[in-house]
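Lab notebook, bench 4. The sequencing result for the construct came back, and we need a structural model before the next group meeting so we can plan mutations. Quick request posted to the team channel:

Model the 3D structure of this chain.
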Amino acid sequence: EVQLVESGGGSVQSGGSLRLSCAASGFTFSASDMSWVRQAPGKGFEWVSGIYASNERTTYASFVKGRFTISRDNSKNTLYLQMSSLKPEDTAVYYCRRGSYSGRGTQVTVSS
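Done. Here's the predicted structure in token form:
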């Protein structure tokens, strides 16, 4: 059974930083492309960043490029999202995703 458990969210002030983690199990993590998506209050899901399994190439949405860094530790079956220079508009529930599977998410709240 695929399981994805996000953690590391919280409340920070504008300009602050957080590191999200996603513990994965039930599948071959090292062979899986992974991504982070988010959902702000009252809005739809929004893709944030992705990392490929084959070469660990990373991709970012334009609104987080230069501020967020995605990474993975295949030895720990864990996906990360380092978020810096956070803005109030980054407030959302953040989910890690593998294909059609997502976890329950972790709340990030950024106050101005």
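The mean pLDDT is 97.
Will bring this to the meeting.
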